[in-house]
């Protein structure tokens, strides 16, 4: 019996991705052969932009992760109706279309929002402006706090039940139990979660683009967009893109060294055991945090739904621009998700083969290529491609291909993370059986892989679809009057203060994202039976 050789398809896919990224980066360097990155720091404006990028990311991370600690503790300690639904909602905010959340926040906290109108009716005024640093922080906390809370809650749920029982038998107070039992688990996860949130906030584009308060509240990514799209200063855009990439790579390496692997408990008895007596102070404390989390997440989404049902619905539905944007969004998201899923599957077929033969470095290397978009943000790659393609063709004529390609790369890390462990397990279980029966290629996928992996495949495809349908970074650079997606169309409506029309488009994007997520998973599961 001879085992199959390492699949070469994954190597080819990784090579194409590497060539794609290298071409984009080479174009950035080619435009600025005398690249002086120090000039960015010497320029007062770009030095401020760099400092603000770090400052808002650091504050967003501290607020999101810091507030997620008491929220996750409350969710772990208490059982209440709707908890399962709330946890599912918390797990989807990270991939919720950014402009949908931004519109919901504007509808509540904006200058003409519900909160502002209520304060004016009682003779008060808004204590902060939604535009600028305060608005950016609010939006980042809205998107990241629920997801961070969900991850910390998962860590707390892994505490062995014996430790909860022992804490109760020893008569520990809530503070003592937190310090001795719960905090060590939270502390293990904080570096991983903080690094993820920091990188997401540092490379945030749509949030800062919609809520930034002018030059004082501009990040590096937004400065790249402004330099190329408005000033057509290709050299400055290229230098800033390389600067952004170097900073992201440096931070990725730093976070990797700081975030040590989390040990897994050997205990098989995992769960929560509660005593008969619970102090009223503890109950009030926990449910206060749960209510505050609900007030942060639920009202903006409810406002999106309520605001979307307005008299401008029929006007938007009769506008051909809306249907063109809707069609473009579905095409981009569908193709990008399909390509992400295919590329991720092929890469993992190669990496799992190497892992089981103890070639860990090769396996890690090919998977790193697949996740390279995490340290080379989508706008940086888009900028490089813009500079590369303009020498061969009209860039805007290739806009659709480029946007699909960039969104494919953006969804790939989610596919790899979702499918890596399930595919490795399948290989461990069936590699010898498949080798002995001569099952390989398409027949192996149809008979073995698809039947066992239809659920994680469905989830990976749905997540990639959501990432692509809500993306604004690539389409912002390549979009035009002939080619726009729903996020770009929504941003243009917000920019022209057509709030009622924007409300309906925002509602459409929300319904489209959530319904497609549910339908895709159900369709894949049904076909996998």
Low-confidence stretches: 261-270
Number of helices: 22
**Count of extended strands:** 0
Helix-strand topology string: HHHHHHHHHHHHHHHHHHHHHH
Share of helix, binned: over 70%
Q: Which of globular, elongated, flat, extended, rod-shaped describes the shape?
A: globular
The helix/strand class is: mainly alpha
How far apart are the first and last residues' alpha carbons, in Å?
31 Å
Q: What share of residues are in beta strands?
A: under 5%
Major beta-sheet overview? none
Q: What is the C-alpha radius of gyration, as a whole number of Å?
A: 24 Å
Query: Could you tell me the mean pLDDT?
Result: 81
Explain this structure.
With 529 residues, this protein is mainly alpha-helical. The chain contains 22 helices and no strands. The chain has helices spanning 9-31, 38-42, 44-77, 83-92, 98-109, 114-121, 133-157, 161-169, 174-202, 206-211, 220-230, 234-258, 280-308, 313-317, 320-355, 360-370, 378-389, 399-437, 441-469, 473-478, 486-495, 499-527. α11 packs antiparallel against α12 (234-258) and α12 (234-258) packs antiparallel against α17 (378-389). The chain is globular. The model is unreliable at 261-270 (pLDDT under 50).
């Amino acid at each position: 019996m001879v085992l199959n050789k390492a699949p070469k398809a994954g190597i080819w896919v990784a090579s194409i991705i590497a060539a794609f990224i290298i071409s984009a980066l080479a174009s950035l360097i080619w435009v600025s052969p005398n690249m002086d990155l120090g000039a960015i720091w010497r320029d007062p404006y770009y030095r401020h932009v760099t400092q603000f990028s770090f400052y808002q990311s650091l504050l967003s991370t501290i607020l999101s992760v810091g507030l997620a600690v008491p929220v996750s503790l409350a969710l772990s300690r208490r059982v209440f109706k709707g908890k399962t639904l709330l946890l599912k909602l918390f797990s989807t905010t990270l991939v919720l279309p950014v402009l949908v959340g931004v519109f919901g926040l504007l509808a509540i906290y904006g200058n003409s929002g519900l909160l502002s109108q209520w304060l004016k009716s009682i003779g008060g005024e808004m204590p902060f402006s939604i535009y600028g640093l305060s608005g950016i922080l609010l939006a980042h906390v809205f998107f990241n706090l629920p997801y961070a809370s969900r991850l910390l809650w998962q860590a707390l749920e892994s505490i062995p039940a014996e430790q909860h029982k022992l804490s109760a038998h020893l008569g520990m107070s809530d503070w003592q139990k937190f310090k001795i039992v719960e905090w060590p688990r939270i502390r293990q996860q904080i570096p991983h979660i903080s690094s993820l949130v920091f990188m997401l906030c540092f490379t945030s584009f749509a949030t800062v683009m919609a809520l930034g308060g002018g030059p004082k509240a501009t990040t590096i990514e937004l400065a790249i967009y402004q330099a190329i799209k408005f000033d057509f200063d290709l050299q400055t855009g290229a230098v800033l893109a390389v600067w952004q990439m170097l900073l992201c790579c440096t931070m990725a390496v730093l976070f990797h060294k700081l975030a040590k692997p989390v040990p897994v408990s050997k205990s098989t008895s995992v769960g929560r055991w509660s005593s008969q007596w619970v102090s009223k102070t503890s109950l009030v404390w926990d449910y206060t945090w749960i209510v505050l989390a609900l007030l942060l997440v639920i009202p903006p989404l409810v406002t999106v739904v309520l605001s979307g049902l307005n008299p401008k619905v029929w006007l938007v539905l009769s506008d051909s621009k809306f249907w063109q944007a809707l069609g473009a969004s579905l095409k981009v998201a569908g193709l990008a998700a399909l390509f992400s899923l295919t590329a991720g599957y092929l890469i993992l077929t190669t990496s799992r083969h190497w892992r089981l033969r103890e070639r860990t470095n090769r396996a890690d290397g090919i998977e790193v290529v697949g996740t390279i978009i995490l340290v080379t943000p989508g706008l940086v790659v888009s900028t490089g491609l813009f500079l590369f393609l303009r020498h061969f063709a009209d860039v805007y004529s290739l806009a659709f291909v480029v946007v699909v390609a960039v969104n494919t790369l953006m969804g790939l890390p989610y596919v790899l993370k979702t499918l890596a462990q399930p595919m490795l397990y399948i290989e461990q279980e069936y590699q010898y059986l498949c080798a002995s029966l001569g099952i390989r290629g398409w027949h192996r996928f149809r008979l073995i892989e698809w039947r066992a992996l239809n659920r994680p495949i469905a989830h990976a495809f749905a997540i990639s679809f959501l990432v692509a349908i809500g993306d604004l970074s690539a389409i912002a650079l390549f979009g035009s009057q002939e080619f726009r997606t729903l996020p770009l169309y929504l941003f243009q409506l917000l920019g022209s203060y057509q709030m009622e029309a924007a409300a309906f488009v925002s509602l459409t994007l929300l319904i489209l994202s959530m319904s497609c997520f549910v339908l895709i998973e159900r369709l894949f599961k049904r076909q996998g039976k």
